[in-house]
Design brief:
This protein has 157 residues and is mainly beta. The protein is built from one helix and 13 strands, in the order βββββββαββββββ. The chain starts with a strand and ends in a 7-residue tail after the last strand.
């Protein structure tokens, strides 16, 4: 759902061998997991591991002057088994050479927490000329495996 406070996910699913899901219950302030993990408390701004990237873009699009380089943004981020506080740091502007062409962007980065052995690094580039929509997302696992998603095409708004 789209609310005055931003995105409000209802369900997040992750499928590798079998699907696991997290079900958001904002009225009760909790998320319920299908993988027999304990329920977790969430607040009104909680996001799932996909919507967090869109929500960050919406925050910056609404007031880019509030987020100069070095600013840290923390959101509760829900996966299929847990809810964690993810902190992104605004790194600064960059120009990317993407399949869609040369794209001005603002980079944000979430570094793995030192006390979490299998934590992932998340890098996000928001298109500053495209309403701060994600134009590149790179997720890197602790073992070095990564997924790198880049904008390949877009229409003129």
């Amino acid at each position: 759902q789209i609310t005055p406070q931003g995105l409000r996910p209802t369900r997040f699913g992750d499928k590798s061998r079998s699907e696991r899901a997290a079900h958001f219950d904002f009225e009760r302030g909790e998320v319920i997991f299908s993988a027999n993990a304990p329920r977790a408390a969430i607040g009104s701004g909680a996001q799932d591991r996909l919507s967090v990237f869109i929500q960050l873009g919406a925050l910056l699009a609404a007031a880019p002057e509030r987020y100069p380089p070095g600013t840290r943004i923390t959101l509760t981020t829900v996966g299929a088994r847990s809810a964690e506080r993810w902190t992104f740091t605004v790194e600064g502007p960059q120009t990317l050479e993407l399949p869609a062409g040369r794209t001005p962007a603002l980079k944000l980065q979430r570094l793995p927490r030192p006390d979490q052995r299998y934590d992932q690094k998340a890098e996000l580039w928001l298109g500053t000329d495209m309403g701060y929509l994600p134009v590149r997302i790179r997720l890197t696992q602790a073992n070095g495996d990564f997924a790198d998603l880049s904008l390949s095409h877009h229409d003129t708004p």
